[in-house]
Amino acid sequence: MKQIKILLTILACAFYCNVVQAATIDSNTVFYCKTTKGKQIKVNKDKSTVTYSFGKNLSKPEIILKKKLSEVEIGRSPYKDGSVLQITIPNNGFLYTITSGHTGVGKFSYLTVSKNGKELAELECQEKTVHTGL
Asked: What is the pTM of this model?
């Protein structure tokens, strides 16, 4: 009986996590992930604007940046038997760079925050939560 309760708890959590992620992603989402530290990263793009959101709860993000599309670098390129998506969002001397890709060896996604060329932080994404919409 204890094993059944544990299994039901795991299934309920998996379902809830997928529902939360599905509610977060929409047709304008070009990148989404949940980091290994429990924070969420989301980048939305429309015709003229890119919006970067970061935080534990995206309905009340810790950081939200809105930039003109012309200010943001978004690119996809081939890389070692796969491809890499890179999104760089500038903000007051800081660069928020999202890198997500896959190779013949595996997948990777992370956020790097830097200032004046110096890396201040790097947050790894949980692979199963990564969504790229480009």
From this structure: 0.78
